[in-house]
């Protein structure tokens, strides 16, 4: 072994620092053997190296302490940011861009159990809602909803368990695709030994990393397919090989003399064309047509596994994650109305909460048992609901009438904010085509009504409909100007200025 390491150093030009190195032994190694080995390699280190690049080096049993450094890193990062000084949209960006990425390295190697991911989620949740972990605050939207894709009513915060599986599946894909890499050669020689990666059973003595990679096979089965070469590796009874079909479509032997087992039995090797008679004997007409439409290569190259959820047939973590979450119920509301708005993210997040009826209105807080006066702060005559606050309150109606889009007062609310937003969009599209950014204006007015309401309750400020509409128009114009500047091609003079 010492000679092998010397040769490696000579060939690669690397040097091993034995003062920073350690030897790992199996549990059966004797004390004498360990001591002798340390002497041979001149390892002076007494304390074992428990972590390398932030990941535990030895994991026989995972406890919450195994990944403590990970949680500490997250806590330290969150401590640097003052949640109270950031908008919820700003906190969301930081969660998606930084917090969710911190455990990526570990999640690409180990399957983190819930005992690890749960505290990370607790910190992410608390930061998003703007409070400390050990204090309580109303979370008006479930974390499961927040983790949904934006078109399904969520904020696309990554689910850690799903991300973990999608990252591990990338390792599994590399094994299946037989990418050229030393670690793949090693695991193939050690664990696979001519067994199929997708069907082999893990053994208790297999390494934890290997067993975790095998757990991610459930992700790969959601999108694996074949690029047909000679067809001899593709079993008709066990493989999903027809691109347009989700599951396995086995043949039915209606003709006893024709019994294809592999795809190669369906291909005429001389002409390199499908044996259409055999195919029509074994499958219903619609499936037979789909099979015959699959292009065949002119040469008898080997069959190749492909990932069917990307154009180039290669697995990506993003497509793996989407394969896990794909079975979501379709959304009844077109969330693109909100996410395509050309206004700042904090306004969009406000509208997302309004659409879910999840604003901390007095009546919502009263309904969950908090000691809050449920009456509208402006008219003091009706409960402070979304429908009243943004449409029916005399204060709000004055604002809409003073605005360039007074017809909004005619949009029916019909009990749900989502219907009201859809109707508002239709109405503006039909009647205010002449006003660019009309939908953005309606949203900004709603946002300012909410701000006025909060200023009145929490800061005891005196607010008026005139003041609210004025603030809305100023904000709307600045947003419109900023967006127009982004859309306009830059003149050479501006470009020069930017350089
Ligand atoms: Zn009112």
Tags for this model:
499 residues; mainly alpha; 4 domains; two-stranded antiparallel sheet; two-stranded antiparallel ribbon; 6 strands; 3% strand; flat; disordered C terminus; binds zinc ion
How far the N terminus sits from the C terminus, by CA atoms, comes to 57 Å
Overall body shape: flat
How many separate domains?
4
Fraction of residues in helix? 40-55%
Radius of gyration, in angstroms, nearest whole number:
31 Å
Care to count the β-strands?
A: 6
Largest sheet: 2 strands, antiparallel
* Category by helix and strand content: mainly alpha
Brief write-up:
The protein contains 23 helices and six strands. It has helices spanning 2-12, 31-41, 68-80, 88-97, 104-107, 114-128, 143-146, 160-176, 182-192, 208-215, 217-220, 276-282, 285-292, 317-325, 336-339, 345-355, 362-367, 386-392, 394-402, 417-431, 438-458, 465-487, 492-498, and strands at 51-52, 55-56, 224-227, 267-268, 273-274, 304-307.
């Amino acid at each position: 072994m010492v000679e092998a390491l010397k040769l490696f150093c000579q060939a690669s030009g690397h040097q091993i620092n034995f003062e920073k190195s350690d030897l790992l032994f199996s549990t059966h190694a004797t004390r004498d053997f360990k001591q002798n080995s340390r002497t041979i390699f001149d390892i002076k280190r007494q304390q074992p190296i428990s972590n390398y690049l932030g990941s535990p080096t030895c994991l026989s049993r995972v406890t919450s302490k195994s990944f403590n450094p990970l949680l500490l890193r997250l806590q330290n990062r969150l401590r640097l940011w003052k949640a109270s000084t950031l908008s919820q949209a700003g906190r969301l960006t930081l969660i998606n861009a930084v917090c969710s990425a911190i455990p990526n390295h570990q999640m690409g190697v180990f399957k983190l159990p819930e005992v690890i991911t749960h505290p990370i989620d607790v910190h992410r949740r608390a930061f998003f809602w703007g409070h400390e972990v050990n204090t309580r605050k109303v979370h008006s939207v479930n974390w499961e909803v927040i983790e949904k894709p934006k078109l399904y009513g969520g904020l696309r915060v990554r689910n850690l368990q799903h991300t973990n599986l999608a990252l591990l599946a990338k390792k599994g894909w590399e094994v299946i695709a037989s990418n050229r890499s030393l670690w793949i050669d090693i695991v193939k020689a050690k664990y696979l030994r001519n067994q199929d990666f997708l069907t082999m059973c893990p053994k208790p003595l297999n390494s934890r990393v290997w067993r975790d990679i095998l757990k991610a096979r459930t992700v790969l089965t959601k999108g694996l397919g074949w690029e047909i070469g000679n067809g001899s590796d593709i079993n008709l009874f066990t493989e999903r090989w027809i691109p347009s079909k989700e599951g396995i479509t086995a043949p039915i032997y209606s003709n006893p003399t024709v019994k294809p087992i592999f795809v190669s039995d369906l291909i005429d090797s001389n002409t390199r064309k499908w044996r259409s008679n055999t195919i029509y004997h074994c499958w219903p007409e619609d499936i037979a047509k789909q099979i015959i439409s699959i292009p065949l290569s002119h040469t008898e190259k080997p069959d190749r596994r492909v990932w069917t959820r990307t154009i180039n047939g290669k697995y990506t973590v993003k497509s793996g994650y989407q394969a896990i979450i794909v079975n979501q119920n379709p959304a009844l509301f077109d969330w693109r109305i909100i996410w395509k708005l050309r206004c700042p993210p904090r306004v969009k997040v406000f509208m997302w909460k309004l659409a879910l009826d999840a604003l901390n209105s007095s009546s919502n807080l009263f309904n969950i048992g908090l000691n809050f006066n449920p009456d509208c702060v402006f008219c003091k005559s009706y409960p402070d609901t979304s429908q009243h606050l943004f449409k029916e309150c005399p204060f709000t109606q004055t604002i809409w009438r003073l605005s360039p889009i007074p017809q909004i007062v005619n949009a029916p609310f019909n009990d749900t904010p989502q219907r009201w937003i859809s109707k508002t969009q239709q109405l503006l599209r039909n009647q205010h085509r002449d006003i660019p950014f009309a939908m953005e204006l309606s949203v900004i007015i709603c946002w300012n009504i909410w701000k006025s309401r909060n200023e009145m309750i929490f800061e005891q400020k005196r607010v008026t409909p005139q003041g609210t509409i004025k603030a809305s128009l100023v904000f709307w114009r600045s947003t419109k100007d900023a967006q127009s500047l982004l859309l306009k091609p830059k003149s050479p003079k501006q470009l020069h200025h930017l350089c």
